[in-house]
Amino acid sequence: MNQSSNRVAVFAVLGAAALFGTSATTAAILIPEASPTAVAAWRLLVGAIGLIIVTRGLGFLSMFRHPLTWLMGLAVGAFQLFFFLSADLAGVAIGTLVTICAAPWFSGLLGWVWGAGRPSPIWFVSTVIGIGGVILLVGAPTGDSLNLWGVAAGLAAAASYAVMTNSGTKLAALGHGANHILAASFSLGALLLLPFVITGGTWFASPSGLIAIIWLGLFVTTLAYVLFGVGLKNLMPGTIATLNLGEPLVATILAVALLGESLSTIGWVGFLLILFALGMLARATASKAAESKDMVTHV
């Protein structure tokens, strides 16, 4: 892997995170009446169809011969279910906080166990700083008590994300195309959530519903995960998960600009900490290949 591939992969994952960050604002503006589970199900269904189209054929069907594809597909569906369950039980703020903060650690440690390599010291430092920034940005939830079941669901969502990312990187390392991996696994995930499509109401038939589905399905899922797939081929799972901390940055910018939400001084400090952490990790990751190349040249 060369420095250019590393740099492209970093920016591709950051681009995916930026697209992910538009989902909440899109739903809030265009389809406020839709349930989160129905939105997630439609997003996954349309996104899976888009990924199948991107593969330009049925070659992705060969992926179903590999057990890791089935594991990844289950993780894709489980991530959506557990994330929205966490948001419902514990509230959006704490559900998002638990999931986003736990995902990098679960992804990095699972990748280490699965043989992807030990995360670098820079990854540890940038992840700690980034998670600290997310905590300041999202803020502590208000309420009388913390719903432990909601926290558990958030941790399950983060674990599902870790399994999804690590399964994808392992399949990519075996030589399978990223788009084929994603088309197969997301098709399985969409089948798991199909009942929520059927029972989620008729909001999707309205003009705003159709626009929301097209954006969330084809852009926030298909395009975003095509970019995500570039990361699967070139980056370690923990690095991918940490770079995805860019999602709350974009979500915050849109919420302030379009939804009239305000951000406290502490929130802006958290915002800047996340930016700093992402910049630190991106620079270190992009230069890693060059250092490796120099080592090989001088051997």
Output the helix-strand order. HHHHHHHHHHHH
List the total number of helices.
12
Largest sheet: none
Task: Return Rg in Å.
Answer: 19 Å
User: What assembly state would you assign to the polypeptide chains in this entry?
Assistant: single chain
Provide the low-confidence segments as ranges: 289-299
Question: Explain this structure to me?
Answer:
With 299 residues, the chain is mainly alpha-helical. It has one domain. Helices cover 80% and strands 0% of the residues. It is built from 12 helices and no strands. The longest helix is centred in the C-terminal third of the chain and has 33 residues. The protein is globular and about 50 Å long. The C terminus is likely disordered.
Short description:
The chain has 299 residues and is mainly alpha-helical.
What is the element layout, followed by pairings?
Blueprint (H helix, E strand, L loop, with lengths): L2 H18 L2 H8 L5 H19 L12 H24 L1 H22 L7 H18 L9 H26 L4 H22 L7 H28 L2 H7 L2 H13 L6 H33 L2
